[in-house]
């Protein structure tokens, strides 16, 4: 068995979710017989890692510093193997604007979008482009911070008059925002875990909020706010298509170990479109990856064990010149 440092918490807006994910991971690792060192990530991170001298780090750190490649870079400097994706893959997937451009370039379907920075909005007259955006995307429009997760900061603009307020809200989370065509349909998620033959897509999970039309932060993490259907009630052909698209996106971003790809099934056209990929999906009681793993016959402890084994097999980060 190994000494595993579980990195959790941190200072991002997803701190509480991260603490919950980390606590579940710690319990599973202890049941598996590993020695667990819990680290609430802060200014003393490097000192605590050096004191613990772990054989591997399990990253359960969501949002800023965890999913953007920051902590991965530090672990590479220290030569500590870690779970999940590397620095570049995290950078690609956390930045929704970059991720969308990569999807478009690769020919992978994703909702039409525009993006601009706070500087462009406040100093370069980007507000005057809203009419053109309305004509090309059509309302309603989804306004999102460019980075972050758990649906934080996401607003819906039903008309052009709603957009400025939505932008102000999004800019409070990030200096860059994404304006995306709203897809009315079904929220689907394909979780992926690496296997001997490469990325293995797990059964599709559909999230059906009970009270809201939108799968927002509360719907994601408050027990009883959302019904989850796994495997999702879709045809075999559509299931195969969704999983193939998810694996294509997973590979495009360079994700490894495990991850999750979120899609929308358009209620009008029946087409699938990718919204984003998550390098460190949640591992809480209501998170989608554990549900998908269980539906595939992979219990939570076994899932955590496999993720750790993959990190150990990958070994210590290679030195970069």
Q: Explain this structure to me?
A:
This protein has 321 residues and is an alpha+beta fold. It has 3 domains: 3-84, Rossmann fold (3-Layer(aba) Sandwich), CATH 3.40.50.20; 92-96 and 184-310, 2-Layer Sandwich (D-amino Acid Aminotransferase, Chain A, domain 1), CATH 3.30.470; 112-181, Dna Ligase, domain 1 (2-Layer Sandwich). It is built from 12 helices and 13 strands. It has helices at residues 15-31, 45-52, 70-78, 87-94, 96-106, 118-123, 130-137, 163-171, 217-221, 236-253, 288-295, 300-314; strands at residues 3-8, 35-40, 56-59, 113-117, 141-145, 155-157, 176-181, 185-195, 198-201, 205-209, 226-229, 258-266, 272-278. The strands form 3 sheets. Strands 8, 9, 10, 11, 12 and 13 form a 6-stranded antiparallel beta sheet that branches. A 4-stranded antiparallel beta sheet has the order 4-7-5-6, with helices on both faces. A 3-stranded parallel beta sheet has the order 2-1-3, with helices on both faces. A hairpin with a 2-residue loop joins strand 8 (185-195) and strand 9 (198-201). The chain is globular, with a radius of gyration of 20 Å. Residues 215-221 have low confidence and may be disordered.
How is this structure best summarized?
This protein is an alpha+beta fold. 38% of the residues lie in helices and 23% in strands.
Give the SSE layout:
Layout: E1 3-8, H1 15-31, E2 35-40, H2 45-52, E3 56-59, H3 70-78, H4 87-94, H5 96-106, E4 113-117, H6 118-123, H7 130-137, E5 141-145, E6 155-157, H8 163-171, E7 176-181, E8 185-195, E9 198-201, E10 205-209, H9 217-221, E11 226-229, H10 236-253, E12 258-266, E13 272-278, H11 288-295, H12 300-314
Parallel strand pairs: 1-2, 1-3
Antiparallel strand pairs: 4-7, 5-6, 5-7, 8-9, 8-10, 8-12, 10-11, 12-13
Helix pairs in contact: 1-12
């Amino acid at each position: 068995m190994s000494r595993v440092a579980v990195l959790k918490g941190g200072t991002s807006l997803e701190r509480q979710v991260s603490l919950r994910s980390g606590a579940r991971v710690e319990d599973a690792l202890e049941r598996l017989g590993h020695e667990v060192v819990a680290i609430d990530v802060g200014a003393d991170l490097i000192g605590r890692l050096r004191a613990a001298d772990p054989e591997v780090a399990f990253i359960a750190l969501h949002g800023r510093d965890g999913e953007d490649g920051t902590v991965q870079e530090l672990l590479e400097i220290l030569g500590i193997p870690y779970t999940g994706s590397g620095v570049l893959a995290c950078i690609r997937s956390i930045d929704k604007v970059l991720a969308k451009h990569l999807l478009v370039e690769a020919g992978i379907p994703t909702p039409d979008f525009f993006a601009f920075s706070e500087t462009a909005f406040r100093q370069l007259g980007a507000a005057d482009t809203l009419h053109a955006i309305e004509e090309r995307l059509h309302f309603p429009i989804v306004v999102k911070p460019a980075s972050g997760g758990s649906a934080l900061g996401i607003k819906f603009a039903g008309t052009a008059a709603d957009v400025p307020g939505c932008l102000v809200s999004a800019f409070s989370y990030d200096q860059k925002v994404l304006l995306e065509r709203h897809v009315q349909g079904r929220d689907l998620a394909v979780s992926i875990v690496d296997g001997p033959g490469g990325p293995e897509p797990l059964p599709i999970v559909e999230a059906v909020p009970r009270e809201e039309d939108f799968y927002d932060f509360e719907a994601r993490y408050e027990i009883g706010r959302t019904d989850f259907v796994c495997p999702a009630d879709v045809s075999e052909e559509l299931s195969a298509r969704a999983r193939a698209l998810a694996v294509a996106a997973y590979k495009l971003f360079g994700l490894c170990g495990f991850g999750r790809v979120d899609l929308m099934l358009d209620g009008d056209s029946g087409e699938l479109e990718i919204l984003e990929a998550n390098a460190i999906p949640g591992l809480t009681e209501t998170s989608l990856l554990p549900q998908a793993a269980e539906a595939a016959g992979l219990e939570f402890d076994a899932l955590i064990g496999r993720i750790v084994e993959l990190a150990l097999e990958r070994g210590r980060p290679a030195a970069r010149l």
